[in-house]
Amino acid sequence: MQGGQRTGGLRTLALVSGVYDLALAVPMLLVAPRLAEAMGAPPPVPLINAQLNGVFTLSLAAGYFWAARDVEARRGYLWVAGVLAKGLGAALFVLDHFQHGSPSTFLLFAVTDGGLAILTAILLGRRAGGAGT
User: Fold this and answer.
1) What is residue 87's three-state secondary structure?
2) Interacting residues of 131 by C-beta distance below 8 A, sequence separation 6+
3) Which has fewest Cβ within 10 Å: 68, 83, 105, 110?
4) Could you tell me the pTM of the whole model?
5) Residues 64-100 pLDDT 10s
């Protein structure tokens, strides 16, 4: 039962991460200037940079939904997207805030991305017998 609970928790986290990234990707693709304004940032110049970030985020979301279908077989994706990408993203948001004065609202992304990265690492590290992949 424990293995099933671990897999279920990892599957739920993959779905949550996918929904989170999808919710970010759509506005970045469709209304990037309005999203930037809502976050207290200037409009993206050139606009294509924000839209490419939307494509990247949409790709991550699609990967999470794919991984959620078989989390044990797709653990590698969760390590790369869920731990590495989200963890580095969180660190960059914090670094940019303190080095370049990006809006404080960007720290919300640091908290959510960082929290998801840590939780993903914890759940991936819990395997039958305690061994991680």
Assistant:
1) helix
2) none
3) 105
4) 0.89
5) 999 999 999 999 999 999 999 999 999 999 999 999 9
